[in-house]
Amino acid sequence: MLDTQSQSASIKEVDRPVVLSVEHVGKYFKLPTEQASGLKQAFINWTRGIKGYKEQHVLRDINFEVHQGDFFGIVGRNGSGKSTLLKLISGIYVPDSGRIEVKGKLVPFIELGVGFNPELTGRENVFLNGALLGFTREEIEDMYDDIVEFAELEEFMDQKLKNYSSGMQVRLAFSVAIQAKGDILVLDEVLAVGDEAFQRKCDNYFAKVKKDSTKTVILVTHDMGAVKKYCNKAVLIKDGEVIVNGNKDDVANRYTLENMRADKRDTDNDKADEYPTGLNARVPMLRINALSKQILTCDDTFQFEVEYQYDEPNSYYLAIAMHDIRRGGVTYDTGANVIKLNQHGHCKVKFEVPLKLFNNGEFKLVVSLRTQNAENPNLTDMVAFTNDDNCCIFAVRDEHTRDYALLNDNALQIKQIR
């Protein structure tokens, strides 16, 4: 059944023409390393073979295709090269290697409001912005009423733009972008424009565009919910290279993991200690290893193991806590002395945690190794703990649950009583 569906999807894609082809594209910029104060110094540098700059390779061997009717996502952390890629696609930059082929009229909207003049009226700015996008006056006049209606600014179009609020300016800019009658619309971080009511209108617009097989949208966003909701394909860029290409869910899930990994990196590079933070001669190793996949649904159970080295003959305890990365706080804690152990040397202990109670979110597991307090048997003393490099992260992504609260409806519901 799965193979038949896959075959059907492939046939449908083959039937649709390729409207954007990116083949082996690379781009670098020259960053000056020393300044030549004049022609003489520049000549001396040249004779000595001193370039005076270094090459920063922003994109390396980028390859993907976008078919007509695709809602195509480009995803990546800040600095990954996605904005440079968008400027290459839009013709603002020229690639240093490879080639980009576009079939059809491409309308780039990389920064909302670029080209607006605060001294001109809203009406004049619509015509100015439309001209910058390559439209004739007649074409702009044809879509003017639709632009104003979508932006909900009928009463303000003859006022100068400097008297608009920032939200009004963004609404006008976005309306110009989406009403432009192009074949390919390129949008960069524009899904969170305007107030809640306007966002609902934008959402309806994208839902409509998604059903139009003649329109193609290329969207850059950090919102993985938008990628899963709108896009049918996506690419993930990291350090100037495509690391995931095709399946939107794979791209969104991998991006979530990349963010969690980046958030938990240890930023302290001035460690004078022989051991990493949290570890010592008594416990030289303590870490949590994921045994199951790290992107799960509420029906899954996350399995992990605690691996450590402890050679002292006395009994000891493991305390495990689960932190909510997005919302903050401790979701669960085993307590200081719940898991009592007697193994010694290099050990691995397996655990699991069911996820059926949780809404979508990102979570971090941390563990500490503790021993009995010599004076008070009801207390334990911490010997070692996991730092950001050796804890464990995982995420819950389930289409049947929500993002806001920690607990889902299976765990808790507030019901009206009479």
UniProtKB/TrEMBL annotation:
- Please name the Pfam families in this protein's record: ABC_tran
What does the UniProt keyword field contain? ATP-binding, Nucleotide-binding, Transport
The protein's matches in SUPFAM superfamilies, at most eight in alphabetical order, are given as: P-loop containing nucleoside triphosphate hydrolases (SSF52540)
InterPro entries reported for this sequence: AAA+_ATPase, ABC_transporter-like_ATP-bd, ABC_transporter-like_CS, ABC_transpr_TagH-like, Bact_Polysacc_Export_ATP-bd, P-loop_NTPase
What are this entry's molecular-function GO terms?
Answer: ATP binding
Q: Which family does it belong to?
A: Belongs to the ABC transporter superfamily.
What protein is this chain from?
A: Teichoic acids export ATP-binding protein TagH
Organism annotation: Bifidobacterium pseudocatenulatum
